Amino acid sequence: MGRRKISKREFLKISGTALAGSPFCLFGNKLPALAGLPGVNRFPAKYSISTPRGVRCQLCPNNCKIEEGDRGDCRTRINKGGELYTLAYGNPCAVHVDPIEKKPLNHFLPGTTSFSIATGGCNLACLNCQNWQISQKKPDELQTIELMPEKVALEAKNRGCTSVAYTYSEPVVFYEYTTDSAGYVHDLGMKNVIVSAGYIEEQPLREWCQYIDAANIDLKSFRDETYQQLNGGTLEPVLNTLKVLKEEGVWLEITNLIVPDWTDDAGMIEEMCQWLVKNGFEDTPLHFSRFTPMYKLAHLPATPLAILEEARRIALSEGLRFVYIGNVPGHSGQDTYCPSCKKKVLDRSGFRIGENHIKDGHCDFCGESIAGVW
Q1: Whose CB among 69, 134, 348, 371 lies 3.0–4.6 Å from 283's, allowing a Cys bridge?
Q2: Domain 94-334 maps to which CATH number in 1.20.120.1760, 3.20.20.70, 3.40.50.2300, 3.20.20.150?
């Protein structure tokens, strides 16, 4: 049995395109598991090499060796007839119109909306995944619509969005879909945003940078051992991703989710901040985000507010100029402050923008430059 296709009208009726909530509200709490390989949207994958032992994917550091009929760790790339194909192309399982602040991007076109899409699959396996209902599924196990790249751009434009965000799951695994969509998005005068763990090889990343205007990268910890045990990856490729994005001129913000007993060590946070400053990221916004119990770490408590506030204090003391506290509605750590005069220049209430004292990229009080895309 193939997966059931639904019309765009039915999809939008179910989902509501103006919602800024979880992607799972699209189909309720249960996503139907549909057997069989999709007969459509099997698209040639980029970045692979044929070997005597199968196709080796070269998109991400997993470098999966994929035998005939098998898939890579991401669940989206399959070897058929000695060729590598992606099954995550033109078939999103989540579509929303979100405030750009939800990504989170605090210094990129604040107050605008972003047409946000995701497919199933991920190349990591985080124990604390917040979107595991789609990221840890195969694309053909999810209810989807057909939304090809040109239509992504048209739908975003028709809904008054300033950007398209590739988000919720992991855009690396729907790489071909993002790059093709991004070209149409630029043609219609909008921007492209990725929200990613940054676990990607350098060559495809540099190609991505020709299309991407802004990125929020999850720097999940600053210990390689933690990356392996908590996320199923390694640290160094993510650090390289940060360097490449900066070098290529992509606007960058970084999120560090503080997970109790895993990534809440003050010494590790200090080391991470020192590395960021040493490598020229002092003007890059850093978001310390509160963990909430779910998926395979449901037994842990939510991150204590005191730990988030201490992390922010450490980051500021190490020389980072824009440091935020996320997932704590109403906290003053969501607002933007001028690093020179210390006055609040941008007020936020949840994902809504209040007073804005940034004019032409400068503090309206003292004239200090405020890094960002305003």
Answers
A1: 371
A2: 3.20.20.70
